[in-house]
Amino acid sequence: MGGTRTRGAGTGGAGVAPLDLPVDRILLGDCAQVMAGLPAGSVDMIFADPPYNLQLGGELLRPNNTRVDGVEADWDKVGDFADYDRFTRDWLGAARRLLKDDGTLWVIGSYHNIFRVGAILQDLGYWILNDIVWCKTNPMPNFRGRRFTNAHETLIWCAKDKDARYRFNYDAMKSLNDGLQMRSDWTLPICNGRERLKDDEGRKLHPTQKPEALLHRAILSATKPGDLVLDPFFGTGTTGAVARKLGRHFLGIERERDYAAMAQARIADVKLQTDSEIVDTPSKREEKRIPFGWLVERGLLPAGTVLTSPNRQWTARVRADGTLITAEHRGSIHQVGAAVQGAPACNGWQFWCWEIDGKLMPIDTLRQRLRAELN
User: Fold this and answer.
1) β-pairing verdict for 249-254 and 228-231
2) Overall CATH class of domain 3-281
3) Longest dimension (CA), the chain
4) pLDDT one-digit tens code per residue, 275-334
5) Rounded to a whole number, what is the distance in angstroms from the first to the last CA of the chain?
6) Where are the domains of the chain?
């Protein structure tokens, strides 16, 4: 699997990336060192799940004295706080060099590490856009009964700097959330069931495998099809698997050879989605502009048609030049909509409706129909 990117690697503010940028590959090694060897300004998004550095001592037992399978591997042990800060500064600095000027970085962590990571992000010049609280529907209980059950993790989403023109697919997130604005609290289960990778004896292959739903939201929100998503702590490859399902390319860096092999096997079964109608989610601002007059000249709303406000309080007539007229006002669909309400502005496409079979439909539905015909 994998190869080199020959076109489209870096069309952001940093310019076109060199032709030898690897894509759809897993690179073995220390993430900061590997990133130092990659071309600057070549990555559209980074999703990082760094070591928590839990600083835990002793075994954790359930009430029945069975041992809890926690995060105890050497890869999670970085050292004391000073060691962890140096480690974090190194990889975040290398990541910032790789990001395109309009790229964004996501990093996830627990209370053990996320606050140190957040401070260093700001020290390095990143601009924090949101902190997302992942509320787990099925968290691990607090077996000792001496603290609250730790039922969430925090994701920090940030741009390369304060003035970056980053990408956010607002409309896609709103659609994903049943037409409501996506909030910064995400309620999702931890990785379980068939999605959880296990060995022949039923043991988890990786203790911190993240659910694909979490990566789906992050990648869909901040990238477009064909973009390159880098994961410097690749683990078992969730980022790569979801990226391919969404028509994005990935680049994984993993220090542990066993995890890299697991990820390779997992991603080999995931086909890169190339159907643009499935994965392309342009914002309304990116869609083809359709002037209201086009609806008039094509007979979708002929001159003389009476348009009505959603509450039927106001009406206006369509003129042959694509403007509206009332007893007191004349102008565009937006100007007249604002004037009748005494409002500073109005989205005329949503405000004005035409009646069909006794029901009022926003004229925006006709705009969408015409846009589809012209594509």
Assistant:
1) parallel
2) alpha beta
3) 81
4) 987 998 877 666 778 899 999 999 999 999 999 999 999 999 999 999 999 999 999 999
5) 34
6) 3-281, 287-374
